[in-house]
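User: I'm writing a tutorial on reading structure tokens. Could you give me a worked example: one chain, its sequence, then its tokens, then a sentence or two explaining what the tokens reveal?
Assistant: Sure. Here is the example chain.
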Amino acid sequence: MKIAVVILNWNGKALLEQFLPSVLAHSQEAQIFVADNASTDGSIAYLKQTFPNISIVQNDDNYGFAGGYNHALKKIDADIFCLLNNDVEVTSGWLSPIIKHFKDHPETAIIQPKILDFKQKDTFEYAGAAGGFIDKYGYPYCRGRIFDTIESDQGQYDDTVDIFWASGACFFIRAKDFKNLGGFDDHFFAHMEEIDLCWRAFNSNLKVQYIGASTVYHLGGGTLSNLNPKKTYLNFRNSLFTLTKNAPGNLLFIIFIRLTYDGLAAIRFLFLMRPNHVLAILKAHLNFYSKLPKLLNDRRQLNQRKNYYKINSIVWRYFALKRQSYNSL
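And here are its predicted structure tokens:
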């Protein structure tokens, strides 16, 4: 079984300097690739000089996370792709339980390891934690992280379980399934594209799983900080994209409720004195409306859409009922 660890990079030379050595030290079972989105910070020259044995795939433009991987993975021959952020530190033996699980469970298409915070290593990391789920209205949450409440790692998620989505920070997928599912949706550019892909896998009866025996540490915000309004824009817009494409049932009702919740989120940003994020949500909605014909066409292409949520509204449970840990939901 050929494993390719593929690190997407855009002007991340400093992050490669910091995090690439751990990947090289602990990934003997895999071939390491850096897929570069036309960096201008000397990343390529640095890699060629410092790590001449690493394979480099050079994209001719910055295609974001979705397009960047779509372009690069076409040029890589492997059975399993590990899509790894350039701000992730891996640990000794991190690949072994995941490779074994893929070998023993051919029905598993996608796997995520335990993702802890690089800066606070006994705490789960925002982007993925111990595996993701989604509510009826498209809001994602994780075992170990709901909105901004993040749990400490006390061994409560040292298990192997089915999840709904795996984090793009460290995302394993069989190459054949990535191809059969059509890869990431380029229109997302960045953020939520892994949830969209996992949702399509779920609707195709493929398994997404979390393996707690494998651990990585994610810095988070290495490319785009949570405080950046562009991240708010992409998250709100792309969440509407994936909900429209993949959700079964009365889509008009679901979208209406979702837009109402987004309005409440905008009001909350106003109270927090973050007006740029209010504008980001407005821009996200306007872009969503402009893309609606394309999204509805994508929706029509799906042969089946299954029930996808365990709870109706994570917003209600978190803010109104004050259930702020996964096990309290």
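What the tokens reveal: Residues 229-303 form one domain. The mean pLDDT is 96.
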